[in-house]
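Per reviewer request, we include the raw input and output of the structure prediction for the construct analysed in the revised manuscript.
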Amino acid sequence: MVMSRNVLEPFKFGSPMRFIRSTANFLRFVAIVQMLTLGIVFVPEGWLAEWHAWLGLGPMPDAAFLRYVVRGASYCQAAIGLLLWVMATDVVRYRPLVITTGAIYLVGGPAFYFIDAVAGLPRWWCLMDGVSCLLIGGVLLALCLWPSPNASQTTQPAIK
């Protein structure tokens, strides 16, 4: 009787990571980009209004809720960047979080495209937002789940 090997076995959660340094560096890059959004919290109101007009959205409404959402979202993005930076310090230890982050970015691609389109943002913005999320998620998952060449010979305890 011939035992068939599970084709997805090397992709198991407990299989050794092949691209540890690349994963950490990619997370650091994404973290820096995310943390740069913190500047939006502090920019003058006039700059936000000019940016709004530059996007082709007309004059920016003078609404407290809009100011809250724009500045709050930039703060949240920066905070996520800080979390990504911490994950980059030990991608093997934080592998479940890195994989979850990759999945969140993948789902975020179509979600942000839809959100942007419904909000009336220009097509280029919708594409930039959606495609960047898909790329980040895809790269993270590929780096974390790509099997090591000797994944079938080596064993690594399952991450708990």
